[in-house]
Specification:
Blueprint: H1 14-17, E1 31-39, E2 48-56, E3 59-64, E4 74-77, E5 81-85, E6 87-92, H2 94-97, H3 101-106, H4 109-124, E7 128-133, H5 139-147, E8 154-157, E9 161-163, H6 187-190, E10 194-196, H7 200-213, E11 218-221, H8 240-252, E12 257-263, H9 264-272, E13 277-283, H10 286-295, E14 298-301, H11 314-336, E15 342-344, H12 374-380, H13 383-389, E16 413-417, H14 425-428, E17 433-438, E18 441-445
Parallel strand pairs: 1-4, 1-5, 6-7, 7-8, 9-10, 11-12, 12-13, 13-14, 14-15
Antiparallel strand pairs: 1-2, 2-3, 5-16, 16-17, 17-18
Helix pairs in contact: 7-8
């Protein structure tokens, strides 16, 4: 049962942190005061100790190391705990996580919707309060979450992934003709999971249709994939003109295009075409990564460190091994590029069932410890993620600051046991998440008072 509690605000920078005071003694709306907490603000690499944070409605309204009025709806003593931003998932597939490939290809949109709601609740219980959804029909789920009908994170929806014939999202049977050559519309097109597009006019229609449905950003597949049955990993997909058509249509609506792509050839053509974000990128070379750093292109990368899967065919596992091999090298290059904009994501999909898949989402952060400190990992999933979400401009469904604890920020907060900047398990182990708050509403509360 959902219970509306109170909103929380984010943290001021250190220079003004200690001067924050509460302006009123009598709350005019629900207020929650966290006392004696250490704060990770999503930006800085040190905790702000013994702090008091006030949430009023759905925003953080005061942060102070001095006592605040205790005439609140609720006061939570956070001694021994860290208050931090909710996790931002950089790359999810809520409509595709709780189902099998057979379910998707059979065209069971009702079942997909039910399973996506289950996955959304599971995701929120991981401490994930916002997610960039990178393909699938989640517009209905997003509405239900926003209206409070079901529990789940804020969703930044892409809608259908747009793919060329023989591209990442071409899952037609081999005897099924292309719809542009007299064949039937593919099932995945009809259910809103993907769209097969060839040529500039079709591209414009596909992009504009996702924007009409409420997409925050547009997702194209511009290179080969692991899961695709007909697209070798080294292929470059779409022409420059097709990509430019997509980015122009998105720009006209004030938002951006992100692309699925692994190789330097595919990604460089996409950058030439005006895209702003690259999903994956495990096979990028140093020159391309440096170009991305220089031109302000974001990288949303996932820790693909498992080199085979029993759920994949031998051909797919061969591609998986190539991506796995490239992952560590790209992470090492990232460490050398201080200005490259990077967020962490998981790309979990086709993982139905409780206790696997989405349930293991935040645990994936531990894979990054071979290359990054806990602070660097958490910043990718909080402060950096919040900055990326703003790239949607006027198509941002949740205007305001996310991924940070600062005055005036939206109250998406986690109260975790311990210090996550020293021990990442403070956030990756569910039992350490004592309070989960999204938009000022507490969805989990196991804090002992």
């Amino acid at each position: 049962m959902l219970k509306k509690c109170i909103a929380i605000s984010t943290l001021l920078y250190v220079s003004s942190f200690c001067s924050s005071v509460l302006a009123q003694d009598t709350p005019s709306e629900n207020t929650i005061l966290f006392t004696n907490v250490d704060v990770f603000d999503g930006v800085n690499d040190e905790l702000i100790r013994k702090t008091n944070v006030l949430v009023t409605g759905n925003k953080i309204t005061s942060i102070s190391t001095e006592n605040l009025s205790n005439n609140m709806t609720r006061v939570i003593d956070g001694s021994g705990h860290t208050l931090m931003p909710g996790i931002i998932e950089g790359h999810s597939h809520l409509a595709l996580s709780g189902v099998t490939f057979s379910d998707v290809l059979m065209g069971l949109p009702g079942y997909q919707s039910i399973q996506s709601a289950v996955m959304a609740e599971d995701m929120l219980m991981n401490g994930v309060t916002s997610t960039r959804d990178m393909s699938g029909e989640v517009f209905s789920l997003k509405r239900a979450i926003d209206e409070g009908s079901v529990m789940g994170p804020r969703i930044y929806a892409s809608g259908a992934m747009i793919s060329q014939t023989s591209g990442h999202a071409d899952f037609r049977a081999f005897n099924q003709k292309n719809p542009m050559l007299g064949g039937a519309v593919p099932v995945t097109d009809m259910t809103g999971n993907s769209l097969l597009v060839d040529g500039v006019p079709k591209m414009l229609a596909a992009v504009r249709e996702q924007l009409r449905l409420g997409a925050s950003q547009i997702k194209l597949a511009v290179g080969g994939s692991v899961s695709g049955p007909v697209d070798p990993l080294d292929t470059t997909q779409f022409t420059l003109e097709e990509i430019q058509a997509a980015t122009t249509a998105a720009k006209n609506w004030g938002t951006y295009v992100t692309v699925h792509g692994y190789t330097s050839d595919a990604v460089n053509q996409a950058i030439d075409g005006g895209i702003k974000v690259v999903e994956h990128g495990q096979l990028l070379d140093r020159k391309t990564l440096r170009r991305m750093e220089k031109e302000g292109i974001w990288l949303s990368i996932q820790p693909f460190t498992e080199c085979s899967s029993p759920n994949l065919t031998p051909a797919q596992n061969e591609k998986e091994a190539m991506v796995c091999k490239g992952t560590g090298g790209v992470y090492e290059e990232i460490k050398k590029l201080s200005k490259l904009k990077v967020v962490h994501g998981t790309d979990i999909f086709i993982s139905p069932g409780k206790g696997i898949g989405v349930s293991k989402q935040v645990e994936q952060m531990e894979r990054l410890l071979n290359w990054f400190t806990p602070y660097e990992i958490l910043k990718m999933s909080t402060g950096n993620g919040g900055e990326l979400l703003k790239l949607s401009g006027p198509r941002n469904p949740y205007p305001g600051d996310l991924g940070v604890v600062k005055n005036g920020a939206l109250a998406d907060l986690l109260l975790v046991k311990g210090n996550p900047l020293q021990d990442l398990s403070a956030i990756t182990k569910r039992e350490n998440l004592k309070i989960i708050m999204k938009d000022g509403v507490i969805y989990k509360d196991t804090i002992e008072q």
